[in-house]
């Protein structure tokens, strides 16, 4: 698995970069690749979007420095911003249709494994995609596929300022909250530590590469 760490970058630039890598992966010009990035403040609406889940007009959000994009991933509405680790797996599915659900479950499993490294017991929800700690979402997942190559991916709240979620109904779920590693543990975690555990967990979950300590 290749890993490309982009540091902090604007959403549109990375969205474009993903699409270029998808084309290369379809043609087998590159191996499976995980992009890691922190975005500037942005709200994205997926294919299942409901505009009523955007609680402020786009003009007001722009004044607050928050961009808004409609994108082709699954899911409804989410927020990305500094202190949040966003991962975009550009992976080729081996099993086509049967593989989509398994792919999403693998991503959930990888994030649960990574969180365990911080002593956090997270879990899946049978009815809702994502990773949860009690009844709060710590990681959102929304993917798209082109010719069975994945793009878009996950957003893991690390040191995220959760007040930005007040501008939306996250994932359209009015009765569920959001949380972060910082909120759960009570202190900030270095993003580099989180990246290391996430990379290891993806290698273990998707490619059966054992952890090395």
TrEMBL record:
<keyword id="KW-0808">Transferase</keyword>
<feature type="binding site">
    <location>
        <begin position="140"/>
        <end position="142"/>
    </location>
    <ligand>
        <name>substrate</name>
    </ligand>
</feature>
<dbReference type="InterPro" id="IPR020605">
    <property type="entry name" value="Octanoyltransferase_CS"/>
</dbReference>
<comment type="similarity">
    <text>Belongs to the LipB family.</text>
</comment>
<dbReference type="Pfam" id="PF21948">
    <property type="entry name" value="LplA-B_cat"/>
</dbReference>
<dbReference type="InterPro" id="IPR004143">
    <property type="entry name" value="BPL_LPL_catalytic"/>
</dbReference>
<dbReference type="GO" id="GO:0033819">
    <property type="term" value="F:lipoyl(octanoyl) transferase activity"/>
</dbReference>
<feature type="binding site">
    <location>
        <begin position="73"/>
        <end position="80"/>
    </location>
    <ligand>
        <name>substrate</name>
    </ligand>
</feature>
<feature type="active site" description="Acyl-thioester intermediate">
    <location>
        <position position="171"/>
    </location>
</feature>
<protein>
    <recommendedName>
        <fullName>Octanoyltransferase</fullName>
        <ecNumber>2.3.1.181</ecNumber>
    </recommendedName>
</protein>
<dbReference type="InterPro" id="IPR045864">
    <property type="entry name" value="aa-tRNA-synth_II/BPL/LPL"/>
</dbReference>
<feature type="site" description="Lowers pKa of active site Cys">
    <location>
        <position position="137"/>
    </location>
</feature>
<feature type="domain" description="BPL/LPL catalytic">
    <location>
        <begin position="28"/>
        <end position="210"/>
    </location>
</feature>
<keyword id="KW-0012">Acyltransferase</keyword>
<dbReference type="GO" id="GO:0009249">
    <property type="term" value="P:protein lipoylation"/>
</dbReference>
<comment type="pathway">
    <text>Protein modification; protein lipoylation via endogenous pathway; protein N(6)-(lipoyl)lysine from octanoyl-[acyl-carrier-protein]: step 1/2.</text>
</comment>
<comment type="function">
    <text>Catalyzes the transfer of endogenously produced octanoic acid from octanoyl-acyl-carrier-protein onto the lipoyl domains of lipoate-dependent enzymes. Lipoyl-ACP can also act as a substrate although octanoyl-ACP is likely to be the physiological substrate.</text>
</comment>
<dbReference type="InterPro" id="IPR000544">
    <property type="entry name" value="Octanoyltransferase"/>
</dbReference>
<keyword id="KW-0963">Cytoplasm</keyword>
<dbReference type="GO" id="GO:0005737">
    <property type="term" value="C:cytoplasm"/>
</dbReference>
<feature type="binding site">
    <location>
        <begin position="153"/>
        <end position="155"/>
    </location>
    <ligand>
        <name>substrate</name>
    </ligand>
</feature>
